[in-house]
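Here is one chain, start to finish.
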Amino acid sequence: MVEGGPLRGEKPEESPVDERVEQRVAGAGAGGQPKTVGGGKAQRQRRAVLPADFGLRVALGPISWLWERLSGWQQDQVEAAAKEELKSLSSLLEWPAQAPSLLAARLKARLDETGGEALITSPFGWLTHCGLVRRPSCSDVRCDDGVRLDTGARCDNCRNVLHNRRAGRARITAEVDEQLPGLDQDERDREIEARMRRHAEAEAADFVARRGAAQEREAQRAAARAKAETRAAAEAAARQVLPCTDCGRAQVAGLCEVCGYRRRTEAAIVEAGLVAATWTADLTDPADVAATAADVRAHLNTVIEAATQQFLGLMTPGELEADPAAAASALAFTALQVVEQALPEYRSSALGRLGRTDEAEAEARRAYTTEQGRRWYRHNPTGAHAVAAATREAEAARTRTAEYLLTVRLEQLRQQVPPYPKAALTARG
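Its structure:
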């Protein structure tokens, strides 16, 4: 005979747990679907286990025993509240995946605060009004019971609030002692508490007023943003119907794609001419600057023509005629690429030439001498380490001087050279 089994002639008794499980299985029918009870009313059947979602199972793990005590409808409400709180926590955390464990820690702390699950007489009310609810101790949305949700450290704002309250109490106590020196201890304490209440009420009223003003300002800013967005949309729609200012093509928002490429190409050609003039031309002679710019333009036009012919050679017969607009855009973009690739070369050549000017040479010699004379090289200023370091500093000074000269000379030339004319764009078309 199995030890602990029923005696002969006795009827085995079922445990209360087995009885509840059998009742749930028999009553649920189709796995927790609504069933019809008295009066034909459909009810959601309770579930013995936590929701299948992994995040919810982690978050609600500490209250699994309370979960079994909830009705089906209450379980749905708690699940929805937990999902909403997890969503809110995820928006505050740098790592949203930590939200379930953070909510689980909150539930465990609230259970410990209550004294355990056995002392909770209303599981649904406790969960929806205590367990799942965030309790900020200050105005910071990241605060929960005086702890920062995003860092887990003590909330600095709460400490500031506590400090301010203590400072306020000390100030009020000093005022009472100064203004009413003859009070006994009980009267003194009552007077201090009364003044503290009035002070707190005044602070609360001030906070409400400031919050209302802030909300009003935010509403005004939102209205201004909406108005600006509406105006911008209307202006964009109005610009969309404008013709191209260069070629006259209709409804291209004032500038078609082809003319946009051509403008950028022309601006890059002008810039290349100015860069070349910084070291090849006399900056005080406009004719010399113009001649240099013309030489650069002629060279770039030759390169553009070669690239255009190469592009046309790759096209199949009749492809350009099939879509003239796309063909013109492709050719204009090809010209832009050629000039943009050449511009860094012009700049590099200018820096190299300007790095050999008297100003750059003087700066390089000065930097070389300064580095060679530093105290850690004084014992051997002509040694390998000293010479290498001095050479590096000299080259860096030379490069800085060349860049400075290029910037200054370009600015001087830009003030002398007028903007490129529109005719230059249409002539290239």
